[in-house]
Design goal:
single chain, 261 residues, alpha/beta, Rossmann fold, 10 helices, 38% helix, globular
């Protein structure tokens, strides 16, 4: 039940929008109940993309990623992605300290890479962020202890490996939706972020992204309901003396491996 103050607020709001102050409209009048003709055409275009179309999108992505320091690496299969990631781990040095460790999402595509064996040969521990189910342990204190251990493992890692839901070729923007076992901290806390996607996850732009999430049947159950991170290259700022610095508020490097198949 609304209070008098809330009622006055909504009356003023409706008046400011040019509506009768006492008119309360049904939500179905405010939001589209189905895709527009343009959105339907867009969905058909996405579903009908040929291999050549997807290659052109990949070229656009590489071009857009260059000026923002997003390193896009096309690879043929998961094995090639695994070796590429292992090479980055071997080449790079931790920003703090000497010990190397890597955090990675529990994610179907990341699981297929077989990173644990490749990193073990280089004596680099891999810490997987397995889902923590509430009440799975001995109680709330045990759950909190598990979360604290997982958080500490992510903080100690100098590289974080994640999947992504999509990547937008127009702006070289990764789209990450967080789920159990896939915390955003893995993409934001380590000094280097490595993402792995397949070629069919590359979209043209934001319009395609929201058309898919809102209207495509395979995405509608989840829709736009959960948190979504949009990441365009490494963290950067020029606040101090207009000098560009990478890694101020997140990773200083972002690598994207695209499995082309």
């Amino acid at each position: 039940m609304k209070t008098a103050a809330e009622d006055r607020f909504f009356r003023r709001l409706r008046t400011a929008l040019g509506h009768a102050p006492d008119l309360s409209r049904d939500a179905t009048q405010l939001f589209a109940q189905g895709p527009s003709a343009d959105e339907l055409q867009m969905l058909d275009r996405i579903d009908g993309r040929s291999a050549a179309d997807r290659r052109r999108l990949l070229e656009r992505l590489i071009e857009a990623g260059t000026p923002i320091n997003l390193r896009v690496v096309p690879v043929f299969d998961p094995a090639a992605a695994r070796e590429g990631i292992a090479a980055v781990v071997a080449e790079k040095r931790p920003e703090w300290g000497e010990a190397k460790s890597v955090a990675a999402w529990r994610h179907p595509l990341i699981d297929r890479l077989g990173l644990e064996g490749a990193l073990a040969r280089r004596q680099v521990p891999l810490r997987i962020t397995d889902p923590i189910a509430p009440g799975a342990g001995a109680g709330r204190e045990c759950d909190r202890a598990q979360r604290d251990r997982q958080r500490a493992a992510v903080i100690a890692s100098f590289i974080g490996v994640t999947g992504a839901d999509f990547c937008l070729a127009e702006t070289a923007t990764l789209v990450l939706r967080n789920r159990p076992g896939q915390p955003r901290s893995v993409a934001l806390v380590p000094s280097i972020h490595i993402a792995v996607i397949t070629l069919d996850q590359v979209l043209a732009d934001m319009k395609e992204l929201f058309a898919l999430l809102r209207w495509a049947e395979r995405f509608r159950p989840e829709g736009l309901s959960n948190y979504m991170s949009l990441i365009s290259g490494p963290s950067k700022t020029a606040d101090i003396e207009a000098t560009m610095v990478h890694g101020a508020h997140g990773p200083r490097e972002v690598h994207l491996f695209v499995i082309t198949g």
